[in-house]
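Shift notes (night). Ran Peptidase M16 while the centrifuge was going.
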Amino acid sequence: MQPKIHKMALLLFTALLVSCASQPVNKQANAETRKNQDDRVFNQDYDMRTLDNGLKAIVVKTDYPEVVSLQIPVQTGSRNEVEPGKSGFAHFFEHMMFRGTENYSQEEYGAMLKEMGADQNAYTTDDYTNYHVTFVKDDLEKMLELEADRFKNLKFSEAQFRTEALAVKGEYLKNSANPFSKLFETVRKNAYQEHTYRHTTMGFLEDIEDMPNQMDYALTFFDRWYRPEKAAVIVVGDVDVEQTHDWIQQYFGDWEEGNYTVDIPVEPPAKGSQYHHIEWPSQTLPMFGLVFRGTDADPMKKDKAALDMLGQIYFGQNSDVYQELVVNKQLADSLFFYSPDSKDPGLIYILARLTSQDNYPAVKQALIDTIVRARTEQVDSEELADIKSAARYGFANSLDNSEAIGDMLAAVVQYDRNPETVNQQYARLDEITADDVQWAANEYLVDDGRIMVTLAQAEEIANLDKDFSLAEQVAKANQPKEPGFQVTDMRNNSDIVDINFLFNTGAAQDPEGKKGLAQLTAAMITDGGSESRSIKEIQKAMRPMAAYFGAQVDKEMISLSGRVHKDKAGEWMDLVMDSLLNPGFREDDFKRLKTRQINSIQTDLKQNNDEELGKEVLYEQLYEGHPYGSLNLGHVSDLESITLDDVKGFYQQQLTQNNLNVGITGHLSDDLKQELIAQLTAELPMKGAEQVNIPEAPELNGRQALIVQKQTMPTAVSFGFPIDVNRAHEDWVGLWLVRSFLGEHRNSNSFLYQRIREARGMNYGDYAYIEYFPRGMYRTQPNANLGRSEQIFQVWIRPLRSNQDAHFATRVAMYELQNLIDNGLTQEQFEATRSFLSKYAGLLLKGQDRVLGYHMDSQFYGTDDFVEMVKNGLAELTLADVNAIIKKHLQTDDIQFVFIAKDAENLKQRLTSEQSSPMEYNSEKPNDLLEEDSVIQDYPLKLDEVEIINIDQVFQ
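Came back to this:
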């Protein structure tokens, strides 16, 4: 006989091979497009007629030249095997159909097929048996004659019968070497007690062993089931339709109809759950399954279509659980959801093949969690539409030859012998809503009838909880969830709404070799669009609202914040939440934003902003080998190595609920607030990677200098050292006052400004800091949300006209810093600075977004609100306190200097030789200033080491 592929084995093999593979989603196909097309998914013209004997004849003329496919499905399968001891007979009889007829022996039949070059086979399923052959059109009449002959005149000897029974047992034994076959056999035997789906198509082994003794029953079986009213003849290909019908009538018209019917036992409702372990005798990968009672494939009901959608969304290749188990963690090498079409309610299989026996608990919990999600959450309507589109277009794409069309028709006409069944199935599919998918999960993925099955070489599975309740977990999941994040509600009556998604993570969490990842991830969220909208579409939608959504990234904070008028808050939130929770992560946006970030380093910072460049190089020098030890924007070589998967990983691991503080201010309604919280709670991961601890800064020994050589006219200077003071420190307010006295940013009353800029006219400004203050060239006040566990004391001397001026200005700053340490502030200086800061602190909070941001910073540090902390701290300070703080935290022994200069060798020679740097003025100066100059021009900087680095090497 010809080799045959058992239909169930084929389905299992395919399922394992593709691991729930879905057709590619066609994002361009949508409901509006489909509405203008023929709603029938199978719209090939066909001619269907019913012969007087009840046989259905279906002829489909195609444009595929020469080839013809003949399919004859018979409505008998293992489902019809109701008599005890007769399981597996439909499959066995499929074998006997190749044993010859009264007119042609088996050998003669085979020789004719060989001469035709025909490709013939057959398969048996639970519900039907199908005989199919593909050949060239010139042999159509002869093929119809031969097939009609064996369906009407089958003849075999008892010897042939008994021999084939042995072959069938061999097939069973062959299949038994496949653990999947054993798993399915075990599950079905225990899932059903009455219905004939209890046995597989192969049948029970004891029945197979008895088949050689069932010759008389074989003849009865043939007489009952191989009748025209239970069959269809399907011809697809390059044929003449009328001629084909004439031949079907000629050869099949005298096939005598029968009258046999059978009552299929109805399976009672399931109660309780089961667990079965299969100990496999040889080496194999472990398997785990959750199996549920399913539904039939009645196309007039929504149940099966909803289950099919559920399987694709929650367990398909693009699902979260597949990505987690198979792709990311590799706990399993395959995962599939299998719910075959069946005439009566079948089973739903969720099966995984594990990479290690140790993975059982994790895989089990992941699948349970996914089921709970399916029962408690609604799927995204866009994703549902995409999968419907993929199903429809995938089906259409599969019908690319006559044989494929014939195969499809044989599988659907077995229900009522009508091709429209497939169109009815897809009509139901199109009607499925998110509510339907959730309903199906709650209707079918339940405890009653559930079977958990494991298969492994081990005698039993250790550490696997065999008892669980989906109902309890669903009930728990349905309880109102407390957000796993902090909510800072500072709403007021302002027409302007500000929302700040402040994540306590940032560039300090960038992996080694991937510096700049946090910055790039934030950019992909705010400037890369969402899954459903491009960034262009989002910007276009925000433009009439005059709204925005942007990112700021620092070492321990990522702030994703925006502003909108209250009247547009709902529309704006839809856009923002879509970007935050469903980033587009498109490859073209990724490349664009990565290029932009590299350009920000290479051009904007290194070439166009000497002032910021010097400050950022200083931070890298001070924090070498520390989590703060790289530019927030990253290093160029690192950025070039970052992949889109790196970005997705950082997003999943770092932008989590336990890292989040959501700040809200302005007139946002209660409903919109609750909607925002609910979305974040439902869709943002609860936890991710463990945060990198922030240690103290590396110890700095002596005075070190780094000169960055680049083509530039002026010389920029920054210097500083780490301090162990941040806003949570008891000395912070006092040191903040000292900083303000010495060099309040962009304030002409500060001391260094007066001594370097005003008295000597050397540059544009001179400032001091005890907190990170980026973009100082463009800002008069520091941004909020730059909270850091570690800080540095820094002096910024804005670019000077020459190396000599830079040398002298650096000496002035060091001279004055040493005087401050030695002598402290005067009472007058203290009182004036304290009075200034008592009022100035409030100016830092002049906008509601800054009020919100500073409040969230106070939460980060665990302090009172900023203004309250500052005013109370200032009120309690005395001059003695401040001068003690100066001596405690300021020093000049261990300092890092950074210079940006054109002639680096000249500057190095000046610094190392302590060359005098006398000042020359273009106007008269007071004698006391000139006398001070004569001291400062030779003031020793005492640098222990001076290095030069070319600009090309910086941040690379």
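Residues 803-823 form the longest helix (21 residues). The first strand starts at residue 47 and ends at 50.
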